[in-house]
């Protein structure tokens, strides 16, 4: 189950990267400020995602389910962010 959860996160991360590339194209059309702000937002979001999922996983500290919980959280938040980036790119 842990391997499947990790594979699901990796797939979600690939989709996120593709959506981010399209969103960056939109940001670049806005100009340098658009690109800078989206890049800064994405970096801040990654830090948030990782910290939030670590906080969730720590509840399972020492248990065999901890890596699965972390990966599941990463996948879920990554999928949500992918949708946000897709919506950004449509503007």
UniProtKB/TrEMBL annotation:
Superkingdom in the source lineage: Bacteria
Domain Lysozyme inhibitor LprI-like N-terminal: 1-85
Organism: Rubellimicrobium roseum
PANTHER family (alphabetical): PERIPLASMIC PROTEIN (PTHR39176:SF1), PERIPLASMIC PROTEIN-RELATED (PTHR39176)
Pfam families on file: LprI (PF07007)
InterPro entries: LprI-like_N
Protein name, as recorded: DUF1311 domain-containing protein
């Amino acid at each position: 189950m842990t391997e499947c959860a990790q594979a699901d996160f990796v797939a979600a991360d690939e989709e996120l990267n593709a959506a981010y590339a399209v969103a960056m194209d939109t940001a670049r059309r806005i100009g340098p400020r658009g690109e800078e702000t989206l890049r800064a937002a994405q970096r801040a979001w990654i830090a948030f995602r990782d910290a939030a999922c670590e906080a969730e996983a720590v509840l399972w500290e020492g248990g065999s389910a901890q890596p699965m919980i972390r990966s599941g959280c990463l996948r879920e938040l990554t999928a949500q962010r992918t949708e946000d980036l897709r919506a950004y790119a449509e503007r």
